[in-house]
Amino acid sequence: MENIKKMISTKLFKNGMWLFLLQIFNTVVPLLTLPYITRVLGASNYGIFSLSLNWITYFQVIVEYGFGFTGARKVSIEGDSSLQNLYSRIISARLLLLAVSYLGMNVLAYVTHVGVQQYVSMNILFLVIIGVAFQLTWLFQGKQDMKLITMINAVSRLISVLLVFLIVKAEEHLYLYCFCYSGTFIFSAILGLALSRKKYGLKVKLCKFKDAIEEIKDGWYLFISQAMSKIFSSVGITVLGAVAAPSIVGIYSAIYKIPYIMILFFSPVSQTLYPYISVKFSESFPKGCQTVKRAAMYIIGLFAIGGLLIILLRNFLISVAFGVAYTEYSNIIVPLVMWMVLSITNNFLGIQFLVASGHQKEYSQAFSLSAVVTVILNITLGIAFGVYGVSSAAAIGEAGLMLLLIFQILKVKSTEEESI
């Protein structure tokens, strides 16, 4: 009990808890409006919103560019003397990427001949990217001072949720919903900038062009891994937007959220297990293997049971969450639940086993190859079978990743056994 009390009182633990709360408000709270908004906007307009947001999140990855990790590390290492310079370099780099992203979005819209509603929605939702450019989570995380920035984000999210219920009342309020969604990011960015100036005396200043480019070079490898992860998770909606009506995109996006929520519930479990399992691997490789196996057996089993219940109750869950109109395609939840269970399994194989045991390279190789295969599967099956093809591609892609990870684990085990 004394050890637990000491751990809870540490700044690291408190900072971690505030970071965990920030993740909850950034991911779970926006889902509170989902049952309401899918009914109010209708499947077609919700599909336009989902497709627009899907494209915007690609550009969000570009502007974030891994600075959430590299920036936090530099803040914690370099100290206050160079903080203003680092602050200027990262914001300048993000503004440069912001300009490139906006140009890319307009070129994309022109080439793909997007409709007027989608183009207007994309421009409104681009406010999200502007907010991200000035988002300072990296700064407060590096300073281990997450309390205030978490509270700012929490208030911003809650205001956004309230505005959705108060002013979005009909199908023609698509643009209003886009503004409500984007406003969260702008509001939290403004408050974050004000807080950084008050606490640390930091001012928004542009640095030299070459310094911004150097900062971009430093974040290249993290950007690549994040970009691949985004492609892996969002390519289905992208392909479906090209081959199906907006209403089908809306239905798929809504139903996809049910297993996705299960993934969100697993995320804190993964974050809690990872450092513990890493310690076990540092003690001995067999002890780490045993710990992963024992944890995986119970946790995967629990989520598999939850997934089975979702499949059995799919019509009821979908009709309650989104409306009866969405139940016509309720069967797509079957491969999506399989994707969810396989994704959790792959977390144990990849993150908890390979990465925790120090074999990041092997994990990266398997993940990169699987991402390419998943994109090809989504394109081919999406064109051939529409929404059923895209949902099946998600499960098949994860199954392929599982086989690749198992192959890498067998190689690692063989190497470790030879070294004993």
Summarize the structure in words.
It is a single chain. With 420 residues, the chain is mostly helical. The model has no long low-confidence stretch (mean pLDDT 84). The chain has two domains: 2-218, no CATH class; 247-419, no CATH class. α3 packs across α11 (220-243). The longest helix is centred in the middle third of the chain and has 38 residues, at 246-283. It has helices spanning 2-9, 11-27, 34-64, 67-78, 83-112, 116-133, 137-142, 146-167, 174-200, 209-218, 220-243, 246-283, 285-312, 314-322, 333-355, 360-385, 387-419.
SSE blueprint:
Blueprint: H1 2-9, H2 11-27, H3 34-64, H4 67-78, H5 83-112, H6 116-133, H7 137-142, H8 146-167, H9 174-200, H10 209-218, H11 220-243, H12 246-283, H13 285-312, H14 314-322, H15 333-355, H16 360-385, H17 387-419
Features of the shown structure:
420 residues; mainly alpha; 2 domains; 17 helices
Q: Number of DSSP helices?
A: 17
Beta percentage is under 5%
- What is the element string, with H for helices and E for strands? HHHHHHHHHHHHHHHHH
**Rounded Rg:** 22 Å
The helix fraction, in percent, is: over 70%
Head-to-tail CA distance between termini: 37 Å
Mean pLDDT: 84
What count of domains describes the coordinates?
2
Transmembrane segments: 12-32, 52-72, 93-113, 119-141, 148-168, 174-195, 231-252, 298-326, 332-355, 367-387, 393-410
Keywords: Cell membrane, Membrane, Transmembrane, Transmembrane helix
Membrane topology: Multi-pass membrane protein
Subcellular location: Cell membrane
